[in-house]
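Question thread 4412

I'm putting together a teaching handout and wanted feedback from people who do this every day. The idea is simple: show students a protein as raw sequence, then show them the structure tokens that encode its fold, then repeat with a second protein so they can compare. Below is the first pair exactly as I plan to print it.
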Amino acid sequence: MNHAQPSKIAQRLMDHVARIQSEREREQAKTIERLPFTIRRVHNHAQLAKAVAIRHKAYARHIPEFAQTLILPEACDFDSDTVILLAESKLDGSPLGSARIQTNLQQALHVEESVHLPHWLQGKRLAEVTRLGIEEGRIGRLVKVALIKACFEYCERNQIEWAVVTGRTPIDRQYEQLLFSDVFDDKQPVPLRHVGGIAHRVMAFEIASGEARWEAAGHPLLGFFRHTRHPDIDLAARLPALVRRGVVPAVARQAVGPTFGLVAA
């Protein structure tokens, strides 16, 4: 008996369902590990105040003059294409770290106020991670790794192709260890407007190949990033952007690519 072959649309649907099932099985097989803190998206002004406080505190330790500009929320904290992640202690709710993610789905990245990204990043789905700030000490190191994992997960869920970061010395070495590569061939730091004119290296990480590259390198964080499930990292909630409260409107930035029909989750 001849069986009709499924149409291309039906085949794509079956492949998609199979992929979801495979990912679900893989997720269920992961080791579950609890953290002494939670990482969630900021969705109200009390949480934003905590994120801003830890951000300012972290920057004040290393670049105090620039930190004075971070005492209050920045206008871009309220942009619809921006997500702020906040790590809070389970013990007392105190802020332990924060990071900001901005995509180019609606406007250009902040780094593009200062540099023109190379052609291989043009028209790609990009996300820039900025304002990574953590508490000092051992707990801060764990919070940093967990925030980085949360940023990678956010990029995957939103079909981001490249994560972009900027790093001053010696922070740039930490991104190198995570297998970020320099965007520019000369690997030289460049002054950036959104970090007070301080020279930073501009670096990028291809999301799709990340796990394979970590595995090939025998990266010590592979297990934490890819083989362990952390329920305390919760990015699932789809929430509206924060409502501005007397904040100077952000300077308009021209988008570098199409929106791809995606909504940042």
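The second pair follows. I'd like the answer to focus on this one:
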Amino acid sequence: MKTKQLISIGLLSFAISGTAIAMHHEEGEERDGGQQLEKMAEHLQLSDQQKAAVAAIMQEQNDKRKALQENMQTQRAQLQAEARARMSEVLSPEQLKKMDSMREERQEKRHEKMEKWKEKREKHKDRY
């Protein structure tokens, strides 16, 4: 029974940390809402008044999205800390070290994948 709980906690911890990939943006990197707004204005033939209203809506949504992401990051960190604390009650110090090492390896691989993805995106950014 404890083995199943440990496996479940471990998998939950891995899954939670993995969701960061899908939502990752470099710190300070913003989606270019200006380009998106200009495309919308052109394709939809927005008036200046409509363009201003759409820009305000987009900014409000962007602010809400940022707040949501920050909240999710905080909650994810809390869940990971809780899982780590519970595992430390069950695992030996050697097992904890090995688990930490495994997590670091996953993070390094994730970082490498993100770097490759950024390079590919940068190489092909003129397509979008």
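Top answer:
Good format. For the second protein you could add a caption like this: The chain has a mean pLDDT of 80. Residues 2-127 form one domain.
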